[in-house]
Amino acid sequence: MREILDIQKQLLPDLLDIMKTRYTILHHVLVSGVVGRRTLAASLDMTERVLRGEVDFLKEQGLLETDATGMKISEAGRRLLDALEPLIKDVFGLTEMEERIGKAFGVSQVIVVPGDSDTSGFTKKELGRAGAAALRKAVVKDDVIAVTGGSTMAEVADQMTASSRMRGSWFVPARGGLGESVELQANTIASTMAKRSGGNYRLLHVPDHLGEGAYQSLMQDPQIQEVVDAVRRCRIVVHGIGDAMVMARRRKVDAEMTRSLQEAGALAEAFGYYFDRQGNVVHKMPTVGLRVEDLQNIEVVLGVAGGKSKGEAIASVLRFGRQDILVTDEAAALEILKQASS
């Protein structure tokens, strides 16, 4: 495959450029669902005149459909995109990135999508789509799936689709989360994933961070204990990865604790734990739900995070050493590889 691509790059470079352009158009339409030509042109940084010619060609091939609401992908277009994905990953150099990250950090499966989700809303949607697809492949009958909160996890939830394999599964929040924006809370994301996939869900109505007294008191409640037991026996956990200081601000951590995190070299946050550059846990609080030690008993740990600004943080969590699947984007992957070689 790669030898053929190298020959094409030398003899027919224009052909590869045209293929990449048409694949990108189809892919944007797939992720968008239904999209107008003007919106698509702006998203692709392409003139409407050029886009019109490409869209007309793709319609003639039966790959796109249009109506009064806009463009959408046809079933033939979906099949073509699935068939082209491995080839396109090689064209963009993403396959090599996936292999290098997997080897450097001991991750079983790495999935890299094109772009930078820091600057492109489309890339963030594609990150969510790839995360949802990875989860669907990992699920088995009657699974228990714990999910964390955050904007990337919300995108994964939005991209979930009905699946017979997920019908008997249970989605549970990995941790409490009251105090955050409702749409970014793990409770909301777990319920959205369940509703979109045809699964079931349980909620955990407790704050994210607790004092020791409050923690011990809540753990005496039978209903809370039942949900926490479900969380801790999950087979899959799906989580995001954040910059430590950004997450500290979002969780309204006080100034003294923020200074403590900075002095400890906190770089990343995941599962409610803070990690330094070497992947060591430098801070944790009593939390109702998943604990970092529970990860040793979880069969599939699936991380979804992207954006150039998160590259160092993602590398930090990968160094912690408990990641089975990573879904990230091209910009973050480049930063992760820099960290791997430093």
TrEMBL record:
Domain of life of the native organism: Bacteria
Occurrences of domain Sugar-binding (ranges): 90-338
Residue span, CggR N-terminal DNA binding domain: 18-87
Keywords for the protein's UniProt record, in alphabetical order: DNA-binding, Transcription, Transcription regulation
Nucleotide-binding listed as a keyword: no
Molecular function terms, GO-annotated: carbohydrate binding; DNA binding
InterPro entries cross-referenced by the UniProt entry: CggR_N (IPR048715), NagB/RpiA_transferase-like (IPR037171), SorC_transcr_regulators (IPR051054), Sugar-bd_dom_put (IPR007324), WH-like_DNA-bd_sf (IPR036388), WH_DNA-bd_sf (IPR036390)
Family, as annotated: Belongs to the SorC transcriptional regulatory family.
Protein name: Uncharacterized protein
Organism: Paenibacillus athensensis
Taxonomic lineage from the root: Bacteria, Bacillati, Bacillota, Bacilli, Bacillales
